[in-house]
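Duplicate of #3305? Posting structure anyway:
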């Protein structure tokens, strides 16, 4: 990225003066709306477009927004935070993208919000124009959310998703990836674990109960783009068994 002139950097810092911390070499094009009543931390080499459509960043009292290094946000974007939003290094956010960690629908209406839930956009993810990310969503590292999609729940690392709600495409992605690794990653993300082994299952993962199995089924079907047999899924006793079910479903599709 081209290093901004000293004057341009000073102007950017003025536009971002409401932030709690701004890293080196910020660049702002246009005049964004920035209201920070909590904590807003911005990393190095941040680029915010606010022209021709103004962008908005609104952080409620007690809320926390963390934007990593080398993040680019397009014009007309909105970040509305009532609790916590984290954007990792190298993330690209398109025009008119909206990140909302609660159910309020307008800046300043946070008092009307439902219970918020954190949003996490992991490093290297890409959100195309007009994407909406809802409360509680996590977009995995290197994932690509295509234009106009709505994200709720978990998008797996390096997945390409689209639609309302956003779902993984099944056209060729599974053939080029490792199914065992994909299923293990989905299980780990669903139950918020750093990793899982092929032998892990309901007997070793406390949250893999009947409700957890339902969440897991939805995550598997959304990410892999296939329909799993409900009875077989309910009787699965390990990650390895899930891999076999997923492989059969892929072969049928």
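Output from current build:
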């Amino acid at each position: 990225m081209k290093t901004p002139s000293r004057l341009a950097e000073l102007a950017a810092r003025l536009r971002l003066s409401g932030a709690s911390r701004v890293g080196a070499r910020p660049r702002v094009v246009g005049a964004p709306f920035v209201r920070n009543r909590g904590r807003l931390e911005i990393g190095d080499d941040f680029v915010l477009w606010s022209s021709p459509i103004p962008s908005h960043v609104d952080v409620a009292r007690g809320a926390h927004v963390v934007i990593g290094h080398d993040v680019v946000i397009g014009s007309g974007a909105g970040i509305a935070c009532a609790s916590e939003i984290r954007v990792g290094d190298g993330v690209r956010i398109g025009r008119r993208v909206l990140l909302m960690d609660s159910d309020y629908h307008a800046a300043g209406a946070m008092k009307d919000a439902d219970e918020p839930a954190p949003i996490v956009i992991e490093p290297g993810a890409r959100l195309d124009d007009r994407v909406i990310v809802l409360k509680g969503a996590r977009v995995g590292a290197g994932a690509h959310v295509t234009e106009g999609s709505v994200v709720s729940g978990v998008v797996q690392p390096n997945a390409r998703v689209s639609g309302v709600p956003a779902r993984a495409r099944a056209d060729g992605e599974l053939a080029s990836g490792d199914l065992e690794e994909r299923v293990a990653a989905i299980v780990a993300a669903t139950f918020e674990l750093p990793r899982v082994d092929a032998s892990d299952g309901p007997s070793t993962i406390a949250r893999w109960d009947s409700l957890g199995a339902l969440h897991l089924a939805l995550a598997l079907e959304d990410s892999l783009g296939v329909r799993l047999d409900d009875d077989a899924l309910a009787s699965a006793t390990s990650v390895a068994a899930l891999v076999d079910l997923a492989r059969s479903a892929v072969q049928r599709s």
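Confirmed duplicate; merging threads. Residues 210-224 form the longest helix (15 residues). The chain has two domains: 6-168, 173-252.
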